[in-house]
Amino acid sequence: MAKPVLQAVRGMNDLFPEDTFSWQLLEEQFREVLACYDVGEIRVPLVEHTDLFARAIGDVTDIVQKEMYTFPDRNGESLTLRPEGTAGVVRALVEHGSLRGKTPRVYYMGPMFRHERPQKGRYRQFHQLGVEYLGMGQAAADAEIIALSARLLKSASVSADLQINSLGTPASRASYREILLAYLRPQAESLCADCQSRLERNPLRVLDCKVENCQQISTGAPRLSDHLDPESEQHFLQLQHLLDALQIPYTVNPALVRGLDYYHRTVFEWVTGALGSQGTVLAGGRYDGLVAQLGGPDTPAIGFALGMERLLALQALQNGMAPLPVPDLFMGALEEESVASLLQMAEDLRSRGVRTVTAGPAGFRALLRQAERSASRYQVLLGRSQLQGDTVLLKEQLGNRQWEGPWRDLPSGLAALGVDFPNA
Ligand code: ATP
Ligand code: MG
């Protein structure tokens, strides 16, 4: 096939009704779960001042260094398509004074943009469901938000494994950074090119590099968990105790460091081996310093984001695709004169909740082909003679059930054949 002249931007996907149906189901299930935790939806802009992300995510992270879609607005201001949700949410809560003395719990759903190398499970426009708990600094909040994430995955009927770690405080991390650098520097030449370039900037990132040689070097590295400050250690132990009490299985993964700079203490991921190398479906952590850093009151916080594309891929793999609902009835008009009656009947059926498609005016054979393509359960054709009193034939497309009667009685015919009238 010749390449079409106009194509979507690389790494940005179109979703058709076959795809969006599973998305909508999932979103509905998620909203039900979130309501049980009294988490409300927040909607913030897709575009923010570039400075917000540079300050929130951190200048030395991969996202800010090379992944952002940044462009000058017409007045010269630098704007950026959001690469993640937390920065915008915190900006909004601070800007509207929603944090003083309060503990907001919010979620968002929507597209994020990162200029990454597109591959399976990694796109330039992708979608996240994110949840943020603000104003709660204790391990109880960490345990609850992890339980919430577990329930979301359960509602989608997918299974994945929970990994947790603690990054300590900025101070304990800074001293660990020096210990890690002392270990990594002599082996710098064996690291991959990416790790060599981020070694001095962000050595912790070397620990979660996916390149095999880097992973081997990481295995022998001194562990952050052995260099935690006492309070972070206590917090981490308390979290593990609560997860045990909630019977949520986890493994402590000392190599889990996350790509964003704003994390403090708890970080966690739900991972699967089923999706190849892009196996993290949900990731999050505590970010106690971020609110103050963005000019708000000192506010502890924890949150996570779930990658919708990866979750849907996992769901399709583990459970198959949700089948698209088929129309109840296909109605075809054989002549111009029958169109008005046909559309009136179709509107009447739709007002009672019957899923109906119409076609025509067209010839008999053309309508039968369209009926077949519509995959409707039943079909009926309306011509001049049926309007004048002949009976219509309502037929099952894939079976033998049928009903014959006057046109105006079509609804009773459908009911007799077992079609539901949800709004009757
Ligand atoms: P990764 O290590 O996979 O690059 P990350 O640390 O960049 O992930 P976060 O920013 O924490 O990821 O995003 C949370 C989740 O969003 C990820 O676990 C993943 O499911 C999803 N995600 C992140 N980047 C992409 C992308 N480019 N395409 C599709 N999904 C993504
Ligand atoms: Mg990434």
How would you describe this protein?
The protein is elongated and about 90 Å long. The protein has two domains: 244 residues, Bira Bifunctional Protein, Domain 2 (BirA Bifunctional Protein, domain 2), CATH 3.30.930; 88 residues, Anticodon-binding domain (Rossmann fold, 3-Layer(aba) Sandwich). Strand 15 and strand 16 form a beta hairpin. With 424 residues, it is α+β, with helices and mostly antiparallel strands. It has an eight-stranded mixed sheet. A five-stranded mixed sheet has the order 13-12-14-15-16, sandwiched between helices. The chain has a three-stranded antiparallel sheet with strand order 2-4-3.
Give the strand line-up of the largest sheet.
1-5-6-11-10-9-7-8
The biggest beta sheet is recorded as: 8 strands, mixed
Q: What integer is the average pLDDT?
A: 93
Q: Give me the Rg, rounded.
A: 28 Å
CATH-derived topology of the largest domain = BirA Bifunctional Protein, domain 2
Class computed from helices, strands and strand pairing: alpha+beta
Number of domains: 2
Shape: elongated
Q: What's the short version?
A:
The chain is of the alpha+beta class and 424 residues long.
